[in-house]
Amino acid sequence: MEGILPLLKPKGMTSHDCVFKLRKILKMKRIGHTGTLDPDVTGVLPICIGKATKVAEYITDAGKAYEGEVSIGFSTTTEDASGEIVEQKKVDQSFTREQILSVLSKLTGEIVQTPPMYSAVKVNGKRLYEYARQGIEVERPSRKVMIYSIELLDDRTVFTGEIIRFRFRVSCSKGTYIRTLAVMMGQELGYPAHMSELVRTQSAAFQLEDCLTLEEIENKMGEGSLADSIYPLETALSHLPKYKINDTLAKKVRNGAVLHIPDHLLTIKGPIVLETAESQALAIYEHHPQKQGLMKPAKVLRNEIQV
Questions:
Q1: Superkingdom, according to UniProt (predicted)?
Q2: H runs (alpha helix) in the chain
Q3: How far is residue 150 from each of residues 34, 68, 120, 147, 196, measured CA to CA in Å?
Q4: Could you tell me the domains of the chain?
Q5: In the prediction, which pLDDT does 304 show?
Q6: Between the CA atoms of 192, 37, 270 and 245, what dihedral angle is there, to the nearest 10 degrees?
Q7: CB within 8 A of 171, min separation 6: which ones?
Q8: DSSP code for 155
């Protein structure tokens, strides 16, 4: 088996737990996930199988979409519902729909986030959650992320209550912490807040409706029909620019040759997929760091053309 298997990650399991279980179900070791989801988060977790593990990072680097719920009124150690309460402040005012929409608009575009202490970001070679579990507070590096859109999934005109909750849909770049985004929503409204629920609805080209549960995967494996649910690795690269090449150039590509960048791709800064006339991905190239106008292979995906 080779390709991408979109998993509907269940609540209560880490991404690593899911990979461990799938290795047992599929009876193979070469399996990897494409970006950590917190245990409390459910949704789209594309799993790379076999040679497709080579493209895992390109799914991880692609945009994501989520549907979540923010609770305004108290914050937690983990910035989500699993943590202990840090600060609590009764909401003693109402907010209009326009005020909520204004906050969402303010947080759209490029924003700066500080990763939560309970996160996998490394500081001095150690993950932040390891410091957090020891009760050690360290300085966290802020990062710029892109929020492409935030939509309010609530039709109320006025929001009232000691704790105010509302749902939202967000489309964002890699590295975005939706937990932190929920906290930022609360800060804009003048109250502590946390993310009380989250589902990832999209990762790169994969949507919620494409996903199978662990139980469904196990059943299909037993029936011998799982291959029908596995996507080719090209699906994972669908968001990247393509360069179709002829058979002569394909031989050079399979041998890792440095090539001239075609004029129409000179302005592309990121990875470029080199593919056959039949749209089979052979390699991923990137601009050569020392030689202007040339590109070199970042990954050779196939050494032979498959028919």
A1: Bacteria
A2: 15-26, 56-60, 97-106, 128-133, 178-189, 214-223, 233-236, 247-254
A3: 23, 11, 25, 7, 17
A4: 3-62+204-236 (3.30.2350.10), 68-194 (3.30.2350.10), 242-300 (2.30.130.10)
A5: 59
A6: -150
A7: 63, 64, 65, 147, 148, 149, 202
A8: -
Q: Which amino acid is at 138?
A: V
Query: pTM for this one?
Result: 0.89
Residue numbers annotated as active site: 38
Residues of the chain with pLDDT under 70: 304-307
HEC profile of 157-197: CEECCCCEEEEEEEEECCCCCHHHHHHHHHHHHCCCEEEEE
**Selection from 239, 293, 230 nearest residue 263 by Cα:** 293
147-156: pLDDT as tens digits: 999 999 999 9
Dihedral of alpha carbons 33, 36, 38, 40, sign = negative
Give Cβ neighbours of residue 132 (< 8 Å, ≥ 6 apart).
77, 117, 118
